[in-house]
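Aggregate trends can hide what the representation actually does to any particular protein. The sequence in question and its structure tokens are set out directly beneath this paragraph.
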Amino acid sequence: MTVAANPVPRTPWGLWRSPYLWLATIHILGDALVVLTSGLLVLATVLVAVLAWPLGYVGIPLSVGANRFVYLVAGWERARAKITRGQVVPPLIPPPPAGSRVADARLAVTDRGMWQQFLYYVLLLPLAIVWLVLIPAAWSVPPVLMALPLYYDRFAASQAQLGPFVIDSPKLAVMVAIVAAVFLLVVSPWLIRLASALDAELARRLLGRSESGALAERVTQLVTSRQQVVDSVEAERRRMERDLHDGAQQRLVSLAMTLGRAKNRLGSKEPAVRALIEEAHSEAMQAIAEIRDLTRGLHPPVLTDRGLDAALSAVAVRSPVPVRVKVDVHPRPSLTIESIAYFVVTEALANVGKHAEAAHVEVSVTRVGDVLRIEVRDDGQGGADPSKGTGLRGLSDRVAGVDGWLTVDSPPGGGTTLTAEVPCG
């Protein structure tokens, strides 16, 4: 974010104690040096970029190099503002490579950022001339006038000429010294503060991105990072499902088979041992079933292999309430969006089985453009309230994680319709 606040204090008693008063003076006087060095370099570089572009093989790299050089020099000016004024200006971004030398040269010459920074040095030239006259005068003339009572009588006819005024008495000389002292203590620092504020505003507008541009870039970064987090979470779910399916589940299956063989070999001998083996075998089979249910909840393999249609059809078969499924998602969305849609439907069907007392459920998943629409409708008792349970709130949070939304229409006795829309562009 651009920081354009003036660090020079407002109060007269704080002005002289602030180091920024002197740093601002150095910065403003340095504008003239910047114009004579960096400004001339930028002027020459921009002329090279414009004139060399039509020169073909030689002009193309010169144009691109000139564009980059302008950004480099402007970076030095932003660094100077940060050191002397504490002003942080977000840098402009040079145009990215277009993949073609001619296109790169065209972008370099037509780049708005380059011309914006060039304009900074153009406008800095008249300001630097003004500062070069005004600032030394603000600091040097008042001290000279403060000493006027000591030397005015040494001029011809014992009088000093100050523009239209003639100082020919000690009283007038003292008055001039008092006015000069007030000017030095109050007005001169305020002139420095005003000049620093104008210089800072010029740098903010021309050397950096606008506030809206910086905020838009930040929003883009946050959206990208959030999407990366969502994708990494879904990837971790798939990894856990594979580990459970290929590791613990296979070991339990092997254990159940071994216990089954042991039970068959034991026959009718040792009834007590046989009962223990049967109990262990039953526990192993139950653990296998629980792991299978768990892996389906994480990320079923059929979802990755065959998509939403096959995965939701398998969920519908296991549902205690008759379910009719309609899936039309062409082209197929990303695995992350598919996982969210699968989670929404499975959780909704689980809630219907537990609370709705429904006789029939309809599930519809369709893609319209870049939006995946999910609708789960039952003919149960209704009355579902997302604010009273964590299940529906969890669904809403998961959908909101990818800029989607979820609504629940559930009048008492009128069934429940859960609708979610998820962007899948």
User: Anything to note?
Assistant: The first helix runs from residue 12 to 15.
